[in-house]
Structure formats: C-alpha cells, structure tokens
Design brief:
Shape: globular
Number of helices: 4
Distance between the termini: 25 Å
Number of domains: 1
Largest sheet: 2 strands, parallel
Low-confidence stretches: none
Strand content: under 5%
Helix content: 40-55%
Mean pLDDT: 96
Length: 81
C-alpha cells in the first residue's frame, strides 16, 4: 500500500483496525518521512475504540508536527473540512 500511496497523489493510507503498537515498522518509517502527508488515523469502532487505537502512540517516536498531520491535519486536507 505504501508504494501505491507514494505513486498516486490521490491515494491515502488509514490505520483503521490496528492499534498503534501493531503498526508495521515500514508504515511508521513512511509516516516519519516522505509519507507524512499520506497517512491518517483511523479506528475500527465499535470493535476497537479510538482510545484503544491511541494507546502506545507515543512509542512510535513521531514528532509533534508529524503526529498532528497523522491525527487530524491530513484528514482536514483530504476531506476538505
């Protein structure tokens, strides 16, 4: 999915159905570098609550700028909110 999102400007990745501790290391590396505008936070509510998905987010080592893009700024841009 990273290759597809990198190649196509209108393709984005969301993290629904995963908790932060289960994100693949490749996805985290992508989020920290050239993919920081391409990944959006998501949940699998009601199966996984937003609170559960956010547990261990600090352990990913995202700086504040990247974390804000991931958590809300990318969605604002993509969905024109």
């Amino acid at each position: 999915m990273i290759a597809v999102a990198t190649k196509h400007p209108n393709v984005y990745i969301d993290t629904s159905a995963y908790t932060a501790k289960r994100y693949p290391i490749e996805l985290v590396a992508y989020m920290k570098t050239h993919g920081q505008d391409k990944v959006m936070f998501g949940t699998n509510y009601p199966m996984i609550t937003p609170q559960k998905c956010l547990e261990n987010l600090d352990e990913l080592g995202l700086n504040e700028h990247v974390a804000n893009k991931f958590l809300f700024q990318n969605a604002i841009k993509v969905f024109d909110l």
